[in-house]
Amino acid sequence: MKIPFLFILIIILFSIKYGNCIVKGLKAMENDFPIAVSLMTKMEGDENLKHFCGGIYLGENWILSAAHCVGTLDPKSVLAQIGGEQINYTSTLDKYEIDKIFSLKLDPYTMKNDVALLQIQTSVDPAKINRLKKLNKIIKKSFTLSTNFIKNNFYSNNKLICYIIGYGSNKFGGNSVFDLHYGHVELIGFRPCSRLLGPVVAPPDQESGMFCAYSRHGVDACQGDSGSALICEKNNSKSYVILGIISYGMGCGVQNIPSVYTNISYHMNYIESIINIHNYRSSK
Fold it and tell me: What positions does the domain Peptidase S1 occupy (predicted)?
């Protein structure tokens, strides 16, 4: 008996995760990944904060995330915990308020342009100001955004050691966690990714500004990890290039099934223009 295509499509769509804890990942040590951000909001009738997506702290007053996480949100409803530390769901004292959110027009069918920037509201709290200054120094020393890194190394360089990080759940439909987790993944080319995910779920083409990564051992992003980073270590140096933003995938932790990431180098002109324009306006 043939199964109707529409029925198959519905099953696929319900199993897609829009990135929670890294499945089969390891608990990160404090200060391992200072770029890690938990984006949180307060639900009506609930005293505690709720983590809903991740982000990537770029330094200064900017966070990079996924458009499907924040594109339609009121900035006043979002708080950010920055630095990769254990999440405190009961206090807002260590959180940063968001002033503005910028995002490209997301294609809801292909998930193309799944990139957003959040500008942190300038704080008057000396402790918060000093904390960001310390993080800025660490990040400038050890983390850089990808520009043409993927173009040169994506398909040919198998020596890259790449990780995904996040606060999402450790199983499909689970709750977010308190501690940042990370896991090792491998980059995979467009054609094998398309074969494994199929035409409905895979990126539409090689020029879509998206790429895939997977694990032979079931390490994967899950719900709530969206907006967090895929990073690759440069020559075993503890210096990292931030290659991608966790975007979407099929289920959580399915062995040899890739997840899809937004290619940061593809969007660098947009990222730099937003930051430069608004930093200039803020300085006037």
Answer: 22-276
Q: Residue 225: count other Cβ atoms within 10 Å of its Cβ.
A: 33
Exposed (0-12), middle (13-18) or buried (19+): which is 38, by Cβ within 10 Å?
buried
Q: How confident is the model at residue 258 (pLDDT cuts 50, 70, 90)?
A: very high
Nearest to 166 by CA among 33, 63, 40, 14: 33
Would you state the pLDDT for residue 192? 92
Q: What is the domain class of 29-139 according to CATH?
A: mainly beta
Q: Are 98 and 53 in contact (CB under 8 A)?
A: no
Single out the residue of 216, 197, 173 nearest to residue 261, CA to CA: 197
CA 102 vs. chain centroid, Å, equals: 16
pLDDT at residue 94 is higher than 80: yes
Report pLDDT for 223.
Answer: 83
The CATH number of domain 143-265, selected from 1.20.1330.10, 2.40.10.10, 1.10.3720.10, 3.90.400.10 = 2.40.10.10
